[in-house]
Amino acid sequence: MVLVLTEVICATELKKLKKQPKITAKERLHDFRSLFQKEDAVLIVISADPDSLAASLAVKSILRYRVRKIVVGYPNEIRRLSNLAMVDLLKIKARRIKSIDQDKYDKFIILDSQPSHNPMFQDIKFDAVLDHHPISGDWETSFADVRPDYGSVASMMVEYLRAAKLKPSVAIATALFYAIKVDTRNFEKQANIADATSFRYLFNIANKNLVRKIELSEMRLSELNYFKTAFDTMKVSNNRLYAHVGRVFSPDVLVIIADFFNRVHPVSWVFVSGIHGERLVVIFRCDGYRKNAGVLASKAFGEIGSAGGHREAARAEVPLKNLDKQDQDFDTQTLRRLTRRHI
Fold first, then answer.
1. pTM of the predicted model, to two decimals?
2. Domain C-terminal end among 181, 216, 251
3. What CATH number is given to the structural domain containing 303?
4. Which residue segment(s) compose the domain that 185 sits in?
5. Looking at the structure, do residues 87 and 106 belong to the same domain, yes or no?
6. Looking at the domain assignment, is residue 1 inside a domain?
């Protein structure tokens, strides 16, 4: 579904829209650009990952010379090696939100996420939301382009660039190309013809040697200890694999472990959890066939934290204080009990 509006609208109202007249890429581009004035200082807010980082480069290109200033801000520390390599090799400029004085900005854009996805986002009044996740929570914006049928926001941004007749630089094309590969898992996850079209457009522009170098930068030697813990604590029942890793320095390692276990036959569900700071993080994986990880994550943890995602991949984050007293000493058995009752 494509949702593009230039008046304030609630997310709950967006969910009710079943049909909408077909909107062209040029119309979306026009409506998006019309939000901004020459004197505006724009803050692009992302949860830093390949898709959002790449999309931010595209938005900066689209708004270049049309606004006074554009800065990219993110709340999470970038720890995953491949993401650090992407930022370093492609010279992506972005800053931690906590170091940014938001009062100095006139307009706010959120990419590859929604205001309800992070408590830090909920105090920001976003002028534009561009995302490919299912609509969740309750929020308002002036412009929304939300397409859950797309595999990545990067694919959407290629359409914006082409509508603007802007050929991406090698760096931007490489970032978008890599982002589509990651978010569609090389087109093994949910994607549509638009993702393939955008990917094909970028194929002859992107530096594929750089993409390969980024892809190979995935894991530190120290992170192998988390795999050892996962193997020691994992339980398999009814083709469902559960593993609680304990405290982790970054939730990204949980994603790496979950993706690894998701390759095991005949496992049909993977649940990997860990504690990061004062939050429980749970990663969900499945084949997406007659299963829906996003729905399961919402059912299991949506009432006590933030949870959601796609059919084959999802995530939940829950403040430890929101867990029942009996669940405070979280382990693999707790993970199993809290998730299996919703399957």
1. 0.69
2. 216
3. 3.10.310.40
4. 9-216
5. yes
6. no
Neighbours of 132 (CB within 10 A): 25
Quickly count: other Cβ atoms within 10 Å of residue 231's Cβ. Answer: 11
pLDDT tens digits for range 102-156: 999 999 999 999 998 888 898 899 999 999 999 988 899 999 999 999 999 999 9
285-324 pLDDT, tens digit per residue, is 998 888 999 999 999 999 999 999 989 999 999 999 999 9
3-state helix, strand, coil in the chain (%, to 5): 40, 20, 40
Q: Strand 279-286 to strand 313-319: parallel, antiparallel, or no bridges (unpaired)?
A: antiparallel
Compute the distance between CA of residue 73 and CA of residue 95 in angstroms, rounded to an integer: 5
What is the layout of strands, in order, in the sheet containing 69-74?
A: 95-96, 69-74, 41-45, 107-111, 128-131, 143-146
Q: Is residue 125 part of a domain?
A: yes
Please give the Cα distance from 265 to 243 (Å, whole number): 16
Picking from 162, 193, 216, the residue at the C-terminal end of a domain is 216
